[in-house]
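Structure, all two chains, one model.
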Amino acid sequence: MLTQRQVRLAWFLVLPTLLVVALVAGYPLAQVFYWSFFKADIAFVEPPQFVGLENYRLLLQDPDFRQALWNTVKFTVISVSLETLLGLAIALVIHSNFRGRGLVRTAILIPWAIPTVVSAKMWQWMLHDVYGVINALGVKLGLLAQKVAFLARPELVLPAIIAVDVWKTTPFMALLLLAGLQLIPEELYEAASIDGATRWQQFWTITLPLLTPALVVALIFRTLDALRVFDVIFVMSGVNPATRTLAVYNRQTLIDFQDLGYGSAISVAILVLIFLFVVFYARTLGKEALR
Amino acid sequence: MKPLSHILTRTLFYLLVIFVVVYSVFPFYWAVISSFKASDALFAADPSFLPTPFTLEHYKSVFLQANFGRNLLNSLLVAGGATLLSLVLGVLAAYALGRLPFPPRNAVLYLVLAMTMFPQISVLGGLFMLLRQAGLFNTYLGLVLSYLLFTLPFTVWVLVGYFRGLPRELEEAAYVDGATPLETLLRIMLPLTGPGLVTTGLLSFIAAWNEYLFALTFTVGNKVKTVPPAIASFGGATPFEIPWGSIMAASVVVTVPLVVLVLIFQQRIVAGLTAGAVKG
């Protein structure tokens, strides 16, 4: 039978991928779950000790964990909202017909292509408290009364980092939304114009409703990305409690403090948080994609 | 004559366009300028917008003192290895998932989809243990393996889309001619997915090239260390010793190839990103 042979071949072709997934995701994940019930250091200097749910109990009382969770939520909500609004604006600009739109589209790809670590360093230099170009320009143009230590002041460091993330990821948002805009049939706008609808009315009654699917996908993607943010935070302010997100706190616990047990419990907590979003995502959009 | 309001909106619109372009490009421009500036000019209270006085000092120091060439080579090997492995494994799996009868197809696709959103940090401790147990800590293979966590699911997901987009008739014609499914994949389907392979390969490569968390955690010293952790850790003991000129020079060196790739493959990258995201 051709079909039966095909099924066997299919298994044979998928198997290597499944094995790799089991090795690099399944096995490490099982380890993380397992060790989260132990008091253990990552080098096993002392024999691991089974402690049941003790690590999870500690997690609920840990003010550092709560602060990290709060920082993560703040970072996610603010950066994703700004990226969505700016991304939508840029997508609308590129979508409208004008000379030089190709140039704009290329220009916005540059932040996307730059590695996060590099963009963090570039902005760290631009935001430098003494020699930074932003301070120099700000003072010259009268926007700043004096030079500001953006990355040293606790109330400014998170906003500064968010600004960097917004710069880096808005292009991605804009491109996803642009793809959505290009799917909207031109005739709808023509018909609306004939009926006398203003540009503004067209935006609210045609563009926004028809763009919603693309908008939701982009939002979920960015949210998942923002919830696990590590690079930009760690490069720009290390483990500073004012900006420390869940991922930064988790690495600090595991690697710097060598606390395998407690660190694993934090990993599980992050996974649960992300899993809730993935389930939500798979429910709303996965089915459509699989059709 | 055009009404004044029209001219006004047009002007505002172009101002907005200019703002978007400057906003996107300026930080990179500033890095380039800074990398060519002599140190005195770099550390001036009122910085110049042109690289005067011009110097190649920072580039020399990056490659001669910091041994940045080694980091570049490491990044190339690790990102290249992860991309190649993902493409080989991914093509096979994606063909099966996209074109062959495979009962647990949806379950596997859900798994792949979930993996593309998997938080790297959640397996950091587990991967650390795995690499140490296997003796792969601070090795190329260890880093490549860990990168498959994100490059492989992405590759499979996007390639499934490409395979499904191909017309059925091609395959049927091949079967009629007596080709086996594997021959059909290699001779007929694979050449047709060429553009898809380039796009997915490119995006995987960029993701691996830019990766920081695993590279930072699974390497020590300079032997295997890739570019991102190397750039992040350039520096001295005090804020005054941070060699900003060299950091900018290194940043430009790693970014220029990416920017060139993006300029060449612009359309494909955009298509790949939207395929990966809209469908996944």
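Residues 13 and 143 of chain B are 47 Å apart (CA to CA).
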